[in-house]
Amino acid sequence: MVLAQLPAVSFQHLKRDIDLYSAYYTAITEDHEGFIWFGSSSGGGLYRYDGYTLKSFLPDPANMKTSIPGFRILKTYLGVDDRLYVATNFGFSVVDPVTGQIENFNNRYDLAPDSRFAWTRCFFQDTVQRTLWIGTGYGLASMNPETGDSITLLRPSKPLDQGYMPEDILCIVQHPRNPGLLWLGTPVGIFQYDIDADRYTHIMCKDIPEQEMYIHDMYAEKSGMIWVSVGNGYIGGFNTDTQQWIVHRLPVYAPLPASGRSVNRLLPAGGNEAWLATETSVGKMNLSTGRFENWDYNADRPDGLLPNYIFLDLLNDRHGRLWVTSWHGVNIARQAFMQPSGVVKEVKVAMTGIDASPVYETGFKPLIYKEDITLHKDQRDITFQYVLPNPLDPATVSYQYMLEGYDSDWITTDQRRVRYPKLPGGSYSFMVRAKERDDQSWTNVTSLKLYIPKRLIEFWWFWGIAGVLFLSIVVFINRLLLSKAKKTERLKAEFEHQLSEIQMQALRAQMNPHFLFNSLNSIKYFAISKSKDETAAYLSKFSLLVRAILNNSKSRTISLKDELDALQLYIEIEHLRLDGKFDYQIDIDSGIHIKQAQIPPMILQPYVENAIWHGLMHKDGRGKLLVQVKDMGHQIQCIIEDNGIGRLKASEFRGKQTDHKKSVGMQITSDRIALINRIYQIDTQVHVIDLMDEHGTATGTRVVINIPLIHDEEE
Fold first, then answer.
1. What is the domain count for the chain?
2. Are residues 499 and 441 part of one domain?
3. Which SS3 state, helix, strand or coil, does residue 555 take?
4. HEC secondary structure over 462-521
5. Of 323, 261, 317, 335, nearest in space to 292 by CA
6. Tens digits of per-residue pLDDT, 487-527?
7. Residue 568's domain spans which residues?
8. Cα angle 145, 149, 153; round to 5
9. N or C end of the chain: smaller count of CB under 10 Å?
10. Which domain-ending residue is among 249, 271, 293?
11. Tell me: the pLDDT tens digits for 18-56?
12. Global pTM?
């Protein structure tokens, strides 16, 4: 016997207490759709795994005939009828992996109740005899799987004869070339059962001690060789032609102690090799030489095998990926390195859920939807759920779906559910396909037909009748519309007049006497005390501003650039007039196309004027004015911020002025914004924020103006 370590492999884990209930996971099987089924032999029940999520099945005392009979799952077996046979400590169930229907056989034995008989160990579906052979704790039993007749226990008339029936059948295989012979693994060795003669023959091996003849598992090769795992670490091959044995035994070494060499599962690997699941390791044996290469738990490899040992069952899936069940959970190899199982004949997407709203029925739902579905006429909100069972890498799977009769083309997604919230009545076919990687082709299409009864208004003849009724009242409606049109024209004229008045008021507010008076005084001041060049520069800027205001006021919308150019001129004039009492800065997001963006004219200037006149003019020390324009997607955000005296103190200054006149510029601007919102169906918002320091002292004012971009049809 040669012992070696296999190359390291990475495992994904389904862990006890995190993903799974209970412990001691065994009995793993792949169904013909590609779903993986496994169970727990310490109370966790049965699971189905699709590569993403787990679905569990537990005994239901209120519905014993349609649930699994016991909490301890001892074996799962996929029959040639594509149904899943589940052995438990209280009989067995037959599960249809498509419909989800469960048929329970825990109370159909033709024998007085016996706890040993309830322990179902294994199955073999014999297509020649048309019989399901069942290994139980009380011996061999049979049942017709097509009719589901009562189970028959095969008890010889003289149990003390040489041909006595062994108890506790642990595994069953059929002779490779003689379907009339079954090979039975038991705690006391192998038995050959002649079906026609109803006779059992005990097969002994002189190379294995009699007390070690506990048969854990077996499989048969087409060549006639039957391989068995026996006792504490023996692997035996029995040639049914020569009646000769080949025996290997696992060696004793630290990771594989003498007490942990039992081989719980044999999985043929081809090429005269087999995978072994032992108490403490998983490995591969060359059945010719006995060379055993293995993995065991390594605390330094968190992606290795799970701890706590007791590796119970093995599976190679449709990819050739290894699955290992153990006491602590399920280990799933991340890469394929075995022969594909061949169980899945066609890789397709499975339809796992149809949810229709409103919900009328809460009854039984299939695990996979394949039958046509007819809904209620008001069930128009439909959600389809689907999955490509157990892909090698779920992150690389792509799906395409199309609802024929509604969608015009395939839609690509990485999601496993799609919702149609408002379907009209009619006949549809939901089609879906997938591919595991970009370099692969799409799978064949999975389709499901769906019918939603039409409402009355969805029939063509209904609209014909409605059309006739409509034409009969056209004259009345026409007269009514003419009357409303005249009223609308009158209101429109009033509205346009009001708009013009507000625009003119805004223009006058921009060119208010205070501004003109102060500007003229500044011109006089500049002419007397400044140079000709400085006076000329001031007059030039002033004339440019007046011209810009007059030009901008003619249009309902202007570009953001024109608005900012006029605002820049105004700030520069005020800066000159106040002898540079404040610093200013205008920041514009680089992503804004200021020449294309359209906004109402003269929106920002009143707020800047307010900041300068009432915030910065009375400030002791140097003032700061910041204008920011930000890109907010379908709108721009303008922020006007000063470090002036604040609104409260500014109102006190205005109250002390004897010649104070009520400013209407801000009110006009507010009215203009309300009118603009109404014209363009937008929501321009203005927020004024008082800035305070940590002591509650005013440190300035911030005005935030959110202006949706305008698409003016008249421009």
1. 3
2. no
3. coil
4. HHHHHHHHHHHCHHHHHHHHHHHHHHHHHHHHHHHHHHHHHHHHHHHHHCCHHHHHHHHH
5. 261
6. 888 887 677 657 766 665 555 455 455 556 666 777 777 77
7. 490-708
8. 95
9. C
10. 271
11. 888 888 998 999 999 999 999 998 888 999 999 999 999
12. 0.65
